[in-house]
Amino acid sequence: MEPQYEKIIVLVIVLLAGFVTWKMVKDFYITKMHKVIAHLIAVATSSFMLLSTMFLFMPKNYQRGTGPEVELSFMSVITVFVMVAVLYVFFKYAPQSTKKK
């Protein structure tokens, strides 16, 4: 695969993970706090998701200008999927289990 296509795929994965994280966190906290506070918490959380997913796709021995900027690997994609899935379970199903009691 050409390096430009890898960059585009990684960018889409990273932005999608950040947006999904922002949406889940905002929807969770908007029922408990003020809209502005919920949005700030969601932005901070999604920023950390953006950084951590970008670090997953960074080459191990990255040197600027000498090699590829991103490495698209199956394990990195699976790791991003698992991180978002854990957040989904945490924000969608964990609060409901405490409400049933």
TrEMBL record:
Record field: transmembrane: 6-25, 37-58, 70-91
Keywords, sorted A to Z: Membrane, Transmembrane, Transmembrane helix
This protein's name: Uncharacterized protein
Higher taxonomy: Bacteria, Pseudomonadati, Campylobacterota, Epsilonproteobacteria, Campylobacterales
